[in-house]
Structures are given as structure tokens and as C-alpha cells.
Amino acid sequence: MSVAPQAVAESADSQSKEANPVETLSVYGSRMSTQKANAGVAVSTVSLEEIEKRQGSNVTDLIHHLPNVSVLGGGRDVAQSVTIRGLSSENGRVIQLVDGTRQNFSVGHRSSLFIDPELLRSVEVVRGPSSTLWGSGALGGVFAQNTKSASDFLSGSQTLGGYLKQGFHSNNNASRTSGAVFGRTETVDWLVQSYYNDSDDNQLGNGKTLSYSAEREKGGFAKLVFTPSLDHQWTFTARQGELDDMSPSNPSVKEPSGSYPLVYRETRDQSLSVAYDYSPASHWVDINSQLYFNNTEMKEHRVASQERDNNETQTIGFSITNTSNIKNIDLITGLDLYRDSYETKRDDSSAPGERPAGQDANAESIGAFGQINIPVFDQLRWQAGVRFDSYQGEDNRPTSLDSESRDHAWSPSTALTWNATEQLALTASYREAFRAPSLEEMYASGTHFTTHMGINQFVPNPDLKPEHSANKELAITYRFTPTSYVDNAYVDARLFRNDVDDFIDMNVDFMGGTTTRENVQDAKLEGIELSLHHQLGGFTNNLSYSQTEGKDKETGSYLDNIPAHKFVAETDYALATLPVSIGGRVSHYAEQTDTNDAKTYDGYTLWDVYASYSPNGEWDGVKFDLAIDNLTDEQYTRAWAQVASPGRDIKLNVRYQF
Fold first, then answer.
1. Does residue 399 surpass a pLDDT of 90?
2. Pairing of strands 87-88, 81-84
3. Fewest C-beta atoms under 10 Å: which of 11, 66, 78, 465?
4. Which residues are in the TonB-dependent receptor plug domain (predicted)?
5. Contact between 587 and 568 (Cβ < 8 Å)
6. Rounded Cα gap, residues 127 and 498, in angstroms
7. What angle do CA 338, 291, 159 make, to 5 degrees?
8. Pairwise CA distance, residues 496 & 525, whole Å
9. Quick one: pLDDT at residue 13?
10. What's the whole-number mean pLDDT along residues 460-474?
11. DSSP letter assigned to residue 482
């Protein structure tokens, strides 16, 4: 069955939750809905209502509370990346999607999270390897950002409208302004939206200022959905964002230095896509297809040396999937094609020969996949899938000695679900995933750094093997029968082990004066996720506990960037007599002592509260959202970060919709 991008079937609670028992269903492509339907896959959804409550400046603000989802990079937004079960989007081990299109920009230590949360209607996070459906990069999982459409604002017989919104954040004196106009007819749904945000430096919990954390961003978004008949639908989207900041060349460090000089950074992110869905009255055919183009350019001006660098990534891709449902058997098949072009320019005018060399490379990938869901018995279902990917990378520089790299990978998966009772379900699953080496990892050359021992040079390695993972997972879900104490409730428990082979690491040889990326490590990541959801009347309560532990399988040493154990409790209450909702969240992060040196990270507890009010009568159309993050002004640093995160932040948004 095809579901239009703007169609939403929302559960009674709008909080983020595990997708298996109760969820907000948001379908932009059949692959995500297929993963949600599989009890062996952990999927969480953050709804539009929660996005508005959080008033985040970055997508990480919307999802860091989810089980085994964390943030790397410290207190500057321009340094942050998403980590799922110990594997990070910074190095391509987590796939980022916007409306189903891959976002493949990657430059060391810089964030690739460019979309403003104001454009989003939901965020969906898949935890655990997912290459069978998504291809290279899904070792840790997938996080999908889905944009708004006119139907997210219009209701009933409304056909035309707009809104203006103004927000203020006390911590960094941020001003966040946005607006949109939208409309719909019987066949057309359209939206034009824009935003402008300006902020000063972040203030920490100890009263100090995090220098060089201010930023300015602006952008726009347009979407047109054309539905000429019940069988056909076209979706056209265009998005552009601009982000300017001044920070160290590695924005995750505390201060600029000789190794990480101060840079003025301009980031320009553009995307165009055309999607076509065909859903005739047939159990065999439900086609989703998409053609897209992304271009991300990051210019950096080194303030002291006056050197100017440029990083640019272009991606053009096409995907098509078909979903069939025949006699209670679900079958999804599909094809993915994309081509990345990566070009960098390095200015070494102040110190000739002492900078990394510019790059000019491209990579191409083609993948075909199939997945089937079969009822074995009344209470037993079996899911199995497989994907084949073939990819190649090419260094286009005339100085390249070994310019081409080719490889392929298979990604099988299987899951068996036993519905022991109407309330209890048990699932055992096995999923494999892979990550192809990035163009930067294979072809980096030139000077890495200079010391008193001399110059250390990058050595290209186009023979890098892909990283592979194999995830074993057990899941138990119990749904409570509705009573006078429970309208909707479940408990979900997961135990997983993910073995990742041929980790690509940077091998720095100080004596030999070389730096090479090599397949040097086989790792295991294992952990648990416990979630409890409860809803009664206007009350919604969520509890979760998650932990991940990672070690080198050969040496037994700890892996870097493994998040601390986390406990999150949240409650929300919607008043029956007033258009008001209030809520709060407490998040406790344990001390992280699983490191290979004396450096450890203290535990901390964060308290957040929020409230929303939509008055009626003369104030109809106005909505107030108030949130206070880090209510106690806790001074804290996330595990593995060098830079502390912001202190108390009082956030107020006022929106008028007409």
C-alpha cells in the first residue's frame, strides 16, 4: 500500500518511542516502513510535536535522548556527529538521509548536519546494522530526517495559509526566525519555507564562555506534491542552507592553536530531488522511485595566514523500490545508484609543501536488494533479505600512481519472530553490513603535520578493504492489556552483539614520517536497550536504559568514542480542559572509565522541562512553546569530548499561523 508523503497515522502519544509497539508512522519510502514492521529492528521516531517542544538548534538536540544514541564533538554545533551503538556518522559508519536521499559529505572533524530542525516533520532512527536495505555505511544504523509539507499545517477544508515564528534562546542570545506559506488543491500540495538564525558564543555551566561557538545560518525550502490520480504521485523538493562560523580548523578542540588555527568557515548545502510513486490497485506493484542531487561546499579562510581552502562534495543518485503483498507475504525489492565527486583545494602559500595535497576523486556504487517476510505458522514469521553492492573509487589527479579501486559486498539479514501470546513477542535476528572506504581515506596525500622530527606525509592506500559487521540481536516485547490504569503500554528489551572486522584506522608512523589508513582492527560492540512506554489519559511516560561496550577483539583494549551508560525518564501531560501540555525529562549519564589511558569522563545528570500553550478565541492561531534545557545549569562534558557542553538555556518560541 502506498502512503503519500504528507499522510500521517499518529498514535495517541506524540513522544519519541520504539517503533514496534506504538509509533508515529511517517512513510516517505517503503524501506523505512519495512524496517519498522520488522520486530527485529530497533526504530525510534521523534514526532513533529516533540520537535516543536525541543526547539533544537541541531538535529542532535532532537535525538540524543534515544537509547544508545549519543553525540560526539563537544559544545560547538559545527563539530557534532551522531553516534548509534558506538559507531559514528563522522566517519561514515552511520547513514544520514533527508527525505530518503543520502547525505555523503564527510570532512574530518567537521559536522555534516546542515538542515535546520524548523524544516523537519519527523526524525527516524534505526539502531543497528542495516545495509540490506540501505547499502554502504549502515554499520551502526540510519537516521532519517523528513521534511514538512503543506498538510502538516492545513486541516479540514483549509486550502491556503502561512505562519511566522520567532524564537529566542537565552544561553547564546540566539534569535531564530522562520516563516512559510503553503496551500493545497485537489491535486497539488505546496510549501515554501525559510529561516534565519543568529547566535553568540555558548555559555557553560561554570559561567565561562565557549569561545568561537557563535554561528549564523539561513536557508530555504520548497516542496510541491502533485497527485494527478490515486495511482500516481510526484514530489519535487529543493533545499538550500548557508552556515557561517569562526572556530578552530578542528572545531572539536577547546581553542585555536598552531596545529588547529582559527578559520572563518562558510558552508553552502544544496539539494534537489524528484520522487515518483506508482500504486495501482494491485498486490504486486507499489513503486517508490527518486532522483536526487546534493552539493555541499565548505570554504575555510585561515585568519592568521590568509590561506583559503575549499572542500566540495557532489552526489547524484537514483533509487527505486517495489513492495508486493501476496497472501500475507511481503516482498520488497529495489535498486540504488549513486555517484560521489569529491574535490579539495589546499592553500599552502604561507608554508609551501607543508599542507595536505588537494584531491580530485569520485566513487560510484550500484546496489540491488530483496527482502521477504513470510508467515511460517500463525504465531511465527520469518524475514530474510540480501543485498549485493558493487563500487569503485578513482583518483583523477595526474600524479596518482594507483588511481582506481574496485570491490563488492554482500549484506544478508534474517529474523525470526514468535508471537507467543497476543501480548508477548520474541525475535532473534542476524544482520550484516559494510562500509566502503571513503575517497579521503583511500587517496589522501601531501603533508599531514610537521614536528621537530620533520614532515609527516600522507601515503595513499587505494587497496583498503571495506569494513564489515555482523550483528546478533535478541528482542522481547510485551504489550500490556488496556485497563483502568493503562490505555497503551509496552516494555521492550534488546540484547545485541555487533562484530566489526577490518576497521579502517589512521596509522601514524612518527619515526618513518608517514600516515596511512589501514585495516588494522577487529572489534566487538555489545550492549542492551530497555524501554518502557506508558500512556493513561493525558499522561505519557517513557523510561529507557541503554549501554554499549566496545573492545578490540585481539588485544582486549577499549574502543574510543563508546558512549557512557544512559538512563532517561520523561513524562508529559496534556490538560483536558485547556490547550496546554507540560512535561519534563531527566537524563543521567554514567561515568565513562572504559578508556585505554588515565583520561576518564565524569558522570552527570541533566534536567529539562517544557510547556506548550495554544490559546483560543482572539488568540486563535498563536502557539507558545517554552523549554528550559539543563535546568540546574550543570557543568558537564560528554564522554570523549574535549569541549564542555552549554549550561542552562531558556528557549521561547512564538508562532502565529494564519
1. no
2. antiparallel
3. 465
4. 37-142
5. yes
6. 11
7. 150
8. 8
9. 34
10. 93
11. P
3-state helix, strand, coil split of the chain in percent (to 5) is 5, 55, 35
Which three cell numbers mark 326?
A: 501476496
| pLDDT-derived band at 35, boundaries 50, 70, 90 | confident
Q: Which of 392, 391, 386 is nearest to 368 (CA)?
A: 386
Report the pLDDT value the prediction gives residue 8, as an integer from 0 to 100: 29
Least confidently predicted of 174-183, 448-457, 570-579: 448-457
Q: Give yes or no for a contact between 150 and 190, defined as CB atoms under 8 angstroms apart.
A: yes
pLDDT of residue 40: 75
Residue 203 pLDDT > 80: yes
Instruction: Indicate the pTM of the whole model.
Output: 0.91
**Cα–Cα distance between 63 and 125 in angstroms, integer?**
8
- Average pLDDT of 368-374? 96
Nearest one of 275, 268, 312 to 292, comparing CA atoms: 275
| Residue that wins the pLDDT comparison between 442 and 568 | 568
Distance CA 108, CA 91 (A): 8
Q: Whole-angstrom Cα distance, residue 85 to residue 126?
A: 10
250-294 tens-digit pLDDT: 999 999 998 899 999 999 999 999 999 999 999 999 999 999 999
418: cell is 514468535
Edge-first strand order for the sheet with 87-88 is 69-72, 81-84, 87-88
Handedness of CA 74, 77, 78, 84 (dihedral sign): positive
Does the pLDDT value for residue 112 go beyond 70?
Answer: yes
Contact (CB, 8 A) for 392 and 408: no
pLDDT band at 401 (very low <50, low <70, confident <90, very high): low
Q: At 617, is the secondary structure helix, strand, or coil?
A: helix
Q: Which three cell numbers stand for residue 69?
A: 544514541
Alpha carbon of residue 167 to chain centroid: 24
Q: How do strand 141-147 and strand 94-98 relate by DSSP bridges?
A: parallel
Q: What ranges in 16-98 are assigned the alpha helix state H?
A: 30-37, 48-54, 60-63
Residue 605 near residue 165, CB atoms below 8 Å:
no
Q: Is 54 helix (H, G, I), strand (E, B) or coil?
A: helix
Q: What is the number of alpha carbons within 13 Å of residue 525 lying toward its C-beta?
A: 28
Backbone angles phi, psi at 190, to 5 degrees: -135, 150
State the amino acid at position 66 in one-letter form.
Answer: L
How high does pLDDT run on average in the chain? 91
Three-state SS annotation for 430-459: EEEEEECCCHHHHHCCEEEEEECCEEEEEC
**SS3 call for 31:** helix
Q: Are strands 404-410 and 380-395 parallel, antiparallel or unpaired?
A: antiparallel
State residue 129 phi and psi, 5-degree precision: -55, 140
Q: Which helix (H) or strand (E) holds 239?
A: strand 232-248
DSSP string, 380-429: EEEEEEEEEEEEEEEE--TT-SS-EEEEEEE--EEEEEEE-SSSEEEEEE
The answer to whether residues 449 and 61 touch, using CB atoms and an 8 Å cutoff, is no
Measured CA to CA, the distance from residue 368 to residue 379 in angstroms comes to 31
